[in-house]
Amino acid sequence: MKNRHCVCALMVLLFAVWCGAADPGKHFFWKVSDSDSHVWILGSIHFGDSSFYPLPKVIEQAFDSSAELAVEIDVSNDSISTEIAKTSAKQGLLPKGKRLPDVIEKNIWKTVDSICAAWNFPSATLLMMRPWMAAMTLSAIAIQRTGIDPSYGIDAVMLDSAAMRGMPIVGLETAEEQISSLSGKSEDDSLGVYYLKSTLREIANLDSMVTQIKRAWKTGNDSLLNAAMNDGETSPDNEKYEAEMEKNVYSNRNQKMAESIGQFLKENRSIFIIIGTAHLVLDERNVLELLKQKGFKVERF
Angle at CA 225, nearest 5°, toward 223 and 227? Predict the structure, then answer.
């Protein structure tokens, strides 16, 4: 199994992909149909900049013709945002009396502390966090330091547009489901420690990775996106962690998303769906392949 970059995986894992080359001139954008209805599905990245906009005309027109917007999780809803904060605190903080340096190796904490010092970010902010939560926090800071911003993320911009139009918004996941996919289940935080170590390793190359990812998304270039995100073979010692991450972050969630989309089609709902690109082009278990297996027609635009 190829090792998928944890920086982007922790940010709801939109960037990691494994796929062949895209057809020239096509986007990460698909129409999924049954005999009498269709939905549109757009592969998103959660961060961006003004150069992403306006979106390609085919995407804008499909959005304009849709009656509803579906996203992984509706962060524009205040009650959902509150639930995300509560769930993150519940699952992302260490038990009373424990601190991050107590549950990771000394050299890992030294690296964390050094990075925080270089960024003028207080490492004390991370002390009460579980390793996966600390990794996610560092990921968010590192990504924004490259010059891209969550307010320019594809789903964030489309959520704003839907709200301005009074367009109904559907969430494909709950806060509990999405956060649980990242937090892992091990009592010793072994998966979270692996996540943190991988994130620290990737931060050094993030600038070039983000540049490639931006170019790949704008041009619909699967191969370039794969090259940007693939950092080689996973070592045997880490295979179990990669397998657990693959299951938690991709396979389980892909299955649920595909089931929801299939239900939209059965109900003949006119809906524009935004899902992280990784969930749409990630090997044979991606959402689009699951929809094909259910008998739906999938076309790329």
Answer: 70
